[in-house]
Amino acid sequence: MEWFAKVVSRITGISIVIGAAFLVGAMLLMASNIVYRFFGGAIPGTYELVGPFISVTAAFALGYTALKQGHVVMDMVFRRFPQRTQVVVQSFTSVLCLGFCALLTWKSAELMWQKLLLREETPWLKVPLFPFRGFWELGLILFCLVLLADLLTALRREGSK
After folding, report:
1. Is residue 48 a contact partner of residue 124, using CB atoms and an 8 Å limit?
2. Distance of CA 130 to CAs 95, 101, 110, Å?
């Protein structure tokens, strides 16, 4: 299963670069709008484009943060437990989290397809929101894959002891 973790890690590494590009795009758009306002104008649609750009960044940051173990972990109490108990509790919480994230991904996909049928778009620029919802869905799938890879790695590590 080590190959699975490597593939997920590589895909997540690529996705965070995409997320960073959208973040830079949002920053440039906001900064340009601020500078242009100084000269008396405004870039139309800045507000309605920044939100979807940031959603792409947030979606891909989920998986990357999980990959780097950057989420908050409450382990002060569990460190005092025996190693076997720690693995059981970690496995249980990982399965619970994976199940919740899989449910969230599934329901998010349903919503995405419903909004596609409604042809959802931004109000002023008429930019379709489906691609941004697709990036969000992809980010959730990557997050689930990272959680699954972590769970399999932890179980493999405990099984080899």
Report:
1. yes
2. 30, 21, 12
